[in-house]
Amino acid sequence: MDKTKRAFELDALRGLALFGMILHHLIFDFRYMLGMDIFAFQDTMWFLYIVRPVFIIVFLVVSGICCQFSRSNVKRTLKLFGIALLFSLAMGLLSYFMKQDLYVIFNVLHLLTVGTLLYGLFSMIENRIIRKASDRAETEGIRLSTYGDIILVLFASILLYASELIPVYSSSITGYWLLPLGFLPPNFIGMGDYMPIFPWLGFFFIGVVIGRFAYRQKRSIFPNAPKAMLSVSVPFEWLGRNSLLIYVFHQPLILAILFGLRYLGVW
Which residues fall within 8 angstroms of residue 238, CB to CB, at 6 or more apart? Predict the structure, then answer.
């Protein structure tokens, strides 16, 4: 397929964000898994609250935009759920054998599962209402679609700003049943990754809204992109198109290489 006829920029952006996340995990492993006194900058405020969130936000926003291209987001949820479940089980086993707390109860994979399911259900209801309205008048269907956009914007806003209330009520939570929302119980287990619904799912739904406006035709918004841009984007596009598999397997592969090299005496 001609790259100008598909949204190559979304693949490239998601691939770039994934590349940043892989680099972060690599330096994390050097410092905390191998215990090497290097890459101390990842403990600084600018890295924790600016650099790292930027890559995560780009990944989530692009993932939300890509819902516009799916034939069935509800069916895609099943695939995401299976991958998220296997990933949690694998990290649990890794934690057990390595005797380190690297558990993953709710991270970006689980977040995408919830977001994709919610939007899939929303789209099903919205399309059914619009089809009935369009039988009466085309303008009525357009108006209802606009209402859908407004609802999604409000929902994203609630997800983003409701996170400010989490610290107020978290002290009364003792179990793990609200952990996906952001409520951490006292003395919670160590987690290798954690990304609660509040506020992170809000960025996913910002992407959903952008997709409904900018990618209504399900095509690239840069149809006349210069060849230089298309060439530079190739490796990031590949990462973006295979983001789920790469995200799941990159960390075990990195750890296997690093500990294998340590066993060989490289460091």
Answer: 11, 15
| Residues 148 and 126 sit within 8 Å (Cβ to Cβ) | yes
pTM score, two decimals?
Answer: 0.91
Domain that holds residue 84: 3-263
Q: Which residue has the tokens 């989530």?
A: 60
Q: Report pLDDT digits (tens) over 15-68.
A: 999 999 999 999 999 998 889 999 999 999 999 999 999 999 999 999 999 999
Give the whole-angstrom CA distance, residue 267 versus residue 259.
9
Beta bridge partners of 103: 191
Q: Which backbone phi and psi does 222 adopt, to 5 degrees?
A: -125, 65
Q: Token pair for residue 101?
A: 């707390």
The pair phi, psi for residue 178, each rounded to 5°, is -105, 10
Number of domains observed in the structure of the chain: 1
- How many CB atoms within 10 Å of residue 227? 8
**193 three-class SS:** coil
Here the tokens at position 78 are: 């099943």
